[in-house]
Each structure stands twice: as structure tokens, then as C-alpha cells.
Amino acid sequence: MSEVAVVAISVAKPGCEEQLREAMVGIVGPTRREPGALQYDLHRDVKEPRRFVFVERWESEAALAAHAKSAHIAAYKAATVDWVELFEIRVVSKIA
């Protein structure tokens, strides 16, 4: 199995930035403890503070798929659905 990386971008609806930030911070610890999690870092855009970026690395696509089905991610999605204006996820593999 080969390692995969993920860039996940969420843009908060105006006025929802801090609620979304807190919810995102709350899933970092549980996700880092998941089997196959190599990196799970949350960033905030310096010029666009409503934009948050997760940079992730997983041992395999299977580990990433298990993460997507985890209880804490399901709870996070349910809690934040009304706070997110845009969500984009890109799964990539390192080539150099």
C-alpha cells in the first residue's frame, strides 16, 4: 500500500469562523490517534481567516477511508454542516 496525502479546505460562513475553528481543533487529537494517521495538521489562511486547511498524510487509502467513516468525523460533520460555505478535498500522492 502506498501513502496518500490530503489537502482539505473549508471556508466558514461569515460569522461562523470561531465555531468552525473550535470544532476543527476538537477533531485533531482523535484523528492523530487513528491507525494509519501520519500527519494531521490544521492551518488557517493568513489573508482569508474564514479559510481553514487540513494537511494530512495517511499510510494508505484504506486508512483514509476508515478515517472518513470514524465516529468523531461523523459527529464533526453533523455539528458543522450549517457553518461551512465551501468544502473541498483533494487526495494526492507524492511523486517527487
Give short descriptive properties of this protein.
96 residues; alpha+beta; Alpha-Beta Plaits; 4-stranded antiparallel sheet; 3 helices; 4 strands; 35% helix; globular
> Which architecture would the CATH scheme give at its second level?
2-Layer Sandwich
Please report the total strand number as a whole number. 4
Strand content: 35-45%
Q: Please, what is the average pLDDT?
A: 96
Domain ABM: 4-92
InterPro entries: ABM_dom, AI-2_Isomerase_LsrG, Dimeric_a/b-barrel
Protein name: ABM domain-containing protein
Task: Kindly summarize this structure in a few lines.
The protein has three helices and four strands. It has 96 residues and is α+β, with helices and mostly antiparallel strands.
What do you see in this structure?
This protein has 96 residues and is of the alpha+beta class. It contains three helices and four strands. Strands 2-3-1-4 form a four-stranded antiparallel sheet. α1 packs antiparallel against α3.
